[in-house]
């Protein structure tokens, strides 16, 4: 399972921030998680290995629809469905996976007395056809850059008073120690540094250096994508 942490929000529905947002990039398209996506998402989660890697429980289709509805209203979660760019296919057929951002409070890795706001990212490319093409790398880069841009523009902090005094933006990743492809993605391609290992959770914690965040991810969204108004096409 993969996680990332970033300054973002608390008492404002995260999902509502992207409910009309479509991000069109070079290799993939990110769209909000809608009811029309649930059936295929449920089929993905029937796979035991996918559930293990994402730390997910098996749900009924009814529970999956309820989960999608709850994510829509959650104050601490932001979800995009990852689509391929094969325009001749309908939207459901183009679904490759999802990328998520969960929000909570934590402490700085350098000073535990310093409070920061975290976003925990999970990336899943469930379709084999979407793997090994740089799509996961692009999807993670887009959500980091999009969240960074929102925070940098004070879009979020102006709305959420409890976080107005938090100035540090920290991105981290937690990856299970047997998930070699994800470790390679975050270390070799995204530039994260391995910080520690938890034997209890059997996972590594990685952190994105601030200089890498500023030099690469602060401009990635503007240089590599176009933001449009999302319209459900099914």
Question: What does the model show?
Answer:
The structure is a single chain. The protein has 234 residues and is an alpha+beta fold. It is 32% helix and 26% strand. It has helices at residues 14-17, 38-44, 48-54, 61-73, 135-152, 180-189, 210-224, and strands spanning 21-25, 29-32, 77-83, 95-107, 115-125, 172-176, 193-198, 203-207, 225-229. α2 (38-44) packs across α4 and α5 (135-152) crosses α7. The longest helix is centred in the middle third of the chain and has 18 residues, at 135-152. It is globular and about 45 Å long.
List the helices and strands and how they pair.
Layout: H1 14-17, E1 21-25, E2 29-32, H2 38-44, H3 48-54, H4 61-73, E3 77-83, E4 95-107, E5 115-125, H5 135-152, E6 172-176, H6 180-189, E7 193-198, E8 203-207, H7 210-224, E9 225-229
Antiparallel strand pairs: 1-2, 1-9, 2-3, 3-4, 4-5, 6-8, 7-8
Helix pairs in contact: 2-4, 5-7
Summed up:
GO terms for molecular function: N-acetyltransferase activity. Keywords: Acyltransferase, Transferase. The chain is α+β, with helices and mostly antiparallel strands and 234 residues long.
Shape: globular
Helix content: 25-40%
The overall number of domains is 1
- SSE sequence, one letter per element: HEEHHHEEEHEHEEHE
- Uncertain residue segments: 1-13, 156-168
- CATH topology, what is it called? Aminopeptidase
InterPro entries: Acyl_CoA_acyltransferase, GNAT_dom, NAT9-like
Keywords: Acyltransferase, Transferase
Protein name: N-acetyltransferase domain-containing protein
Family: Belongs to the acetyltransferase family. GNAT subfamily.
């Amino acid at each position: 399972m993969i996680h990332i942490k970033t300054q973002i929000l608390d008492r404002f529905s995260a999902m509502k921030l992207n409910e009309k947002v479509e991000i069109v990039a070079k290799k993939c398209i990110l769209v909000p998680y809608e009811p029309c996506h649930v059936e295929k998402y449920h089929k993905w989660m029937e796979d035991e290995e996918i559930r293990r890697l994402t730390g997910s429980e098996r749900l009924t289709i009814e529970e999956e629809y309820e989960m999608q509805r709850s994510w829509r209203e959650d104050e601490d979660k932001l979800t995009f469905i990852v689509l391929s760019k094969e325009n001749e296919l309908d939207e459901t057929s183009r679904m490759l996976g999802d990328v998520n951002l969960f929000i909570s409070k934590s402490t700085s890795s350098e000073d535990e007395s310093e409070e920061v706001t975290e976003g925990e990212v999970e990336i899943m490319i469930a379709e084999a056809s979407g793997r090994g093409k740089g799509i996961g790398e692009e999807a993670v880069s887009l959500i980091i850059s999009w969240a960074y841009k929102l925070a940098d523009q004070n879009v979020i902090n102006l709305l959420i008073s409890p976080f107005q005094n938090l100035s540090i933006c920290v991105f981290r990743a937690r990856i299970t120690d047997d998930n070699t492809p994800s470790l390679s993605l975050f270390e070799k391609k995204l530039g994260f540094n391995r910080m520690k290992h938890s034997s209890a959770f059997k996972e590594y914690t990685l952190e994105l250096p601030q200089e890498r965040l500023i030099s690469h991810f602060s401009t990635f969204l503007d240089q590599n994508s176009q933001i449009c108004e999302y319209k459900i096409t099914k």
